[in-house]
Amino acid sequence: MTVAGIISAIIVGLVIGALGRLVVPGKQNMPIWLTIVVGIVAAIIGTALAQVVGVATTPGVDWIELVFQIGLAALGVFLIAGARGRRSIG
Fold first, then answer.
1. Among candidates 44, 46, 89, 41, which has minimal Cα distance to 71?
2. CA distance 13 to 26
3. 8 belongs to a structural domain
4. 32 domain residue, yes or no
5. Domain count for the chain
6. Does the first or last residue of the chain, that is N or C, have fewer Cβ atoms within 10 Å of its Cβ?
7. Which candidate, 36, 37, 42, 40, places its Cα nearest to that of 9?
8. Euclidean distance between CA atoms 40 and 45, whole angstroms
9. d(Cα 33, Cα 38) in Å, to the nearest integer?
10. Residue 33: partners with Cβ closer than 8 Å, 6 or more residues away
11. Does 68 fall in a domain?
């Protein structure tokens, strides 16, 4: 992977993670760096899932792939925010 590929993965991860946070209702108690990590992982898994299903390469914008990525990011945000919210202090 090139430097440009790493930078674009971070940017895509930021956007996908932010969209995932917007989909999940309520306030999520998680830092921005964790949102980016969730977004990057969701983007990678969503792309792989789109390839398995056969919709990764379409003319124009790959809407189905984006739906997979955002859905996975929302699931990741939901699970991580829920796990972080259940921690007891003290």
1. 46
2. 21
3. no
4. no
5. 1
6. C
7. 40
8. 9
9. 9
10. none
11. yes
pTM of the model: 0.79
Instruction: Give ∠ CA 50-52-63 in degrees, rounded to 5.
Output: 15
Nearest 10 degrees: Cα torsion 46, 47, 52, 56:
120
The residue segments making up the domain with residue 61 are 47-77
Of 78, 65, 89, 64, which Cα lies nearest the Cα of 30? 78
Residue 70 falls inside a structural domain: yes
- Residue closest to 74 by CA, chosen among 49, 42, 47: 42
pLDDT, averaged per 10 consecutive residues of the chain (90 residues), comes to 73 86 84 87 86 80 85 90 64
Rounded to 5 degrees, what are φ and ψ at 86? -85, -5
Q: Do 17 and 38 touch, CB atoms closer than 8 A?
A: yes
Amino acid 44 reads: I
Token output for 79: 């699970």
